Amino acid sequence: MAARLLLRSAVRAATTCRTGPVPALTRSMAAGGIPTDEEQATGLEKIIMKATKEGKDPYSMLKPKQYTGSKADPHLVPSITNKRIVGCVCEEDNTSVIWFWLHEGEAQRCPSCGAHYKLVPHELPH
Ligand SMILES: [Zn+2]
After folding, report:
1. For residue 63, how far is its CA from the centre of ligand 1 (angstroms)?
2. How far is the CA of 87 from the centre of ligand 1 (A)?
3. How deeply is 67 buried, as exposed, middle or buried, from its count of CB atoms within 10 A (0-12, 13-18, 19+)?
4. Band of residue 1 on the pLDDT scale cut at 50, 70, 90
């Protein structure tokens, strides 16, 4: 019985012809639909979405950019103060880390391998 009712409604739906334009599907809250992520985001999520649209990464969520470590292209180390401890794994397979203080100003070299590091000011988003 239920199968016959389903079959009848399916045949009716297939044979009826719509005249006029089919309304476009919309998801916008203004049109009474489901709100998008941008429309319903609040707080920290909204700040992150807005910054991502502007191409910023305020919470360092993306993969860090690669630098060569030369004097012309030093590794940029963000810091909220005027110094920061840096650990350098001088070669890829090294099991030890060379730790040293990096101070604000000119780029400094790793005491072991000579890679250049430069401290850049970083401001917290809030
Ligand atoms: Zn090093």
Report:
1. 20
2. 8
3. middle
4. very low
Neighbours of ion ligand 1 (CB under 5 A): 88, 90, 110, 112-113, 115
For residues 79 and 86, the answer to whether their CB atoms sit within 8 Å is: no
Q: From CA 63, how far away is CA 80, in angstroms rounded?
A: 20
C-alpha 88 – ligand 1 centre gap (Å): 5
Domain spans of the chain? 37-61, 67-121
Residue 17 labelled as part of a binding site: no
Angle, vertex CA 70, rays to CA 100 and CA 92, nearest 5: 65
Cα 122 to averaged position of ligand 1 atoms, centre (Å) = 23
Q: Residue 119: how many CB atoms within 10 A of its CB?
A: 23
80-98 pLDDT, tens digit per residue, is 999 999 999 999 999 999 9
Task: Please say whether the structural domain 67-121 has been given the CATH code 2.60.11.10.
Answer: yes
How much is the pTM?
0.58
